[in-house]
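Re-run with default settings, no changes from the original entry. Doing this only to confirm the output is reproducible before filing.
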Amino acid sequence: MRAWLNSIAQWWNDWVGDKEMENSIRHHLDQSGYYGALAQITNVRLVAIQRPGWLQIYRFEVKARVRIDAEETDGPDPAPQHAQLLGLVRQDFRKSINDIRLFDQPQARRELFRDWAEGLIQLRGAEGLG
């Protein structure tokens, strides 16, 4: 029973909840040199919002396989490389803008979050970026 509850909790934690946003993240990963279709997107959370809800900022984490050019490598295929990335999504529904940024370091993500979230209602604590 406990294993089943843990699997449900993990499924809920890894669920994006917005197919359009998930597709946008995967497309951005493809453009950034990763395999977006294979990426594991986790911990998608709303961290800031502007009333009445048109502007929203989400955070997420992703494990993505690095795309390696076959032309750059001679000989056998290299072992797959994966990257652990952090990300932010800024959605503005008034202007149909989906701005996605990827980071290697949490500090860089926090700095952009502070810029984007200035004047917005921000989630505090463990789930936010504060």
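Residues 10-118 form one domain. The chain is about 30% helix and 30% strand.
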